[in-house]
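Format is sequence with structure; example below:
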Amino acid sequence: MSHPSPWTQLPDTAVWRHFATLCAIPRASKAEAALRDRLRAWAEEKSLSATVDRAGNLILKKPATPGCEHAPTVVLQAHLDMVCQKNADSAHDFSRDAIVPVLRDGWLIAEQTTLGADNGIGVALILAALADETLRHGPLEALLTVDEEAGMGGARGLEAGLLDASLMLNLDTEAWGEFYLGCAGGLDVDVRRDGDAEPLPAGWTVRRIALRGLRGGHSGVNIHEERGNAIKLLVTALHDLAGVLPYRLVSLHGGTARNALPREAFAVLALPDAGPLDAWLAGHQAELRERLRGVDDGVELSSETAEAQTVLGAEEQFVWLASLHAAPHGVKRVSRQVAGVVETSNNLGIVELTPEAGYCNFMVRSLVDRAADALADEIVSLFALSGTVAEKSGQYPGWAPNPGSALLQTCQAVFKRDFGGDSTVQVIHAGLECGLIGAKYPGLDIVSFGPTIHGAHAPGERVEVASVGHCARLLAAVLGEIAGG
């Protein structure tokens, strides 16, 4: 079914024109160079200062509006990369294909893939502000980072001394009407183990089991909603199946992004008698749907014929399935300091097991850095029991709230004046680059806001069109207020 182009249906504003460009140019983490080069050329055409630092970040600078030269310098910050997730039956290639969204009921939606509104809308808002010759502002800087979604490599590699700003507006949050003043830090635990392949038992049948139909989502923002984790659910199914049908594991794959809740997982099994398998899967599917009612009603379990030559060694199968079954996933602790916010959690986001080798990744988050480290240590200890290598890496700090922020007061005052209501202040259980950037630039006063985005990090990601327009107005008004009206 074809849809009319959304770009002709959206408001004709610079924000949407820039976002259309971002959708047209692939921008997976660590592969942002083509987009960065396009934006650098655009900036130079606009006579803006454009620099690429050693980490690959793009830094743009624009002089103040005449008469506003003595206003504080503001840096506008967003990241260029996007989470690349698609449905299993989608032929989309994130290395070459454009994102093709549709407009429906006031929302711009990517139906089969992620949209990249996280954080492409933030980038588009910044570019539109830089291009607006009617905007009154003090000295402006734009920090467009790379590799945020795969480990915050751009922010981590940002050098001190490149920015002059004393204020920073981060445009990477996803609820209009809310200002964010803090976020979780985190780290990864990567688990690796060499395999011990054995020949496929003679005469055994090979079947591929698929667990699909979950909503997925952001591994921090949605972690408290108890959405299904396809890896954990399939491992539990395999654990239960072992008590009914003997089998040998050929492979197990699930999840494609460390910071996304796994929506699909697949296991290839060899069985001496696969006859009862489909009936057992149907019964287990019914149990899953009952357990996930109202959260992930679409969960499906199915099987099909497959082929294999080898299976995991018996000991390797036991170690992996027992360890993954015991491994934590989800909320560890709710904050006692910030009401209604998760303090510590982890996401089992990726697993890749073959007869030759195995790998899995856990992404740990916490508002308390030492709590993230402690949970990661528990995961390392679990795998150490079997002599499996588990290593911590990529730790980044949380962003500690500053309730006395003068920039927050300005943002809230402008919001109330221009939008006729009160905003709220939040702390988010997700990783923003604010903590890393603030550590490089001590004293930087930081506030984050953005439009309403639903389903980030999962196919079906959508952004509310009206809230994007609101954000553009708010950004312009805040910059004008900082410049002195």
The chain has a mean pLDDT of 96. The chain has eleven helices and 25 strands.
